[in-house]
Structure formats: structure tokens, C-alpha cells
């Protein structure tokens, strides 16, 4: 029945506008949520790095293990930042698509016809390859094809830049650790020294040891969920 309607009746332009706007708003909200979640992961990872550094200072016998942990956490932090930056760029690109689509529909309303846009097709093709948006962006591309704004369906292949993500360069890890630990040392130097309660140190240390691995597993799980 729907196929017969498509043959004999043209899509309602207003319905098409509403449908496209709805899909783009949903995608924007999803990107906002994912970016906010990644910010939480980033802050937790910074905390884990600082906890491992403090543990190494309090207990020299654990210095080697703590140093290994800080490098693991630093790699996770680098990946999280890269994912977050990719989503921020994609959100800006999606906003650009939304403006171009509105302009295309406005031109059709004035001129009575619509011209396909290579620029929109290129942007949509890029966004549909983003794992976080694949499903809904395919739906948007279908609506834009129906409206005549783009001429063909987008491909299914993932872009090359999303296939890298191996081990981070050691120099980049060193840079991140230097940034975080230098900030901590600066804060310590700026704060008047006060005796640290000796009786509280063991409890804090034990808590750090118990929580570090669990928080790392949780952090990795969230990051993988965002990427999938």
C-alpha cells in the first residue's frame, strides 16, 4: 500500500520537513548525551591517575605497579578525548546539515522545485559512518533522497579515521601524564603545607587499591558502549 502511495502521491513537503527536523534533533540530543558521558569518564580517569601517583609516593614498594597503572589510565584518557572531539566535530557538522536542509526546503517552497545538494550528501555520508549515529542517519538519508535533496543513498563503509585506535604513542602518554601531574604539583606548591593525618593514610590507600581496577573496568565498558 505504501509503495502504491509513493507512485501516485508525492510526499507532503511539510511532513518531510518535520520528519527531517525530528531525526536531526534526536541525533543532536544523543551527541550531547554522549559528549557529557565522555566528560564524566575523562574526569574519573584523571582522578585514577592522581590516585595512582599518590599511592606511589606513599608506598615506594608499589611505585612500579602504580606507574604502570598511570600509563594505562593515560591511554584511556587519550582515547576518551579523541572520541569526545570526534563527537563535537560531528555535532557541528550535523548542525550544518540541518541549516542546509532548511534552506533547501525553503528554496523549494519559493521556486516550486528543489535542487540536489552535493554538499549535504557529502556531510550526511560522513555522519552515517559515525557508529553513534549510523541507524538514524540512514533514516535521514532516505528522507532526503525522497525529497530530492540528495541523489543517492550513502555507503556503509566506515571511514579510515575510525579504524585506527591502536596503542597510543608513548610520547603522547608522557605528555598527558606531565599535564595532569604537573597541575597537581602546582596546586600542592600553592597550598600552605599542613600535616597530613597519619591515621587516615592507610584507609585512603586501601580504598585506592580496591577501587582502581573496578573503576578502570567500568570506564572501559562505558567507552566501548559509546563506540558501539
TrEMBL record:
One of its GO terms (biological process) is vacuolar transport. The lineage of its organism: Eukaryota, Fungi, Dikarya, Ascomycota, Pezizomycotina. It comes from Hyphodiscus hymeniophilus. Residues 187-212 are annotated as: Disordered. Coiled coil: none annotated. InterPro entries: Snf7_fam. This is ESCRT-III complex subunit. It holds the Pfam family Snf7.
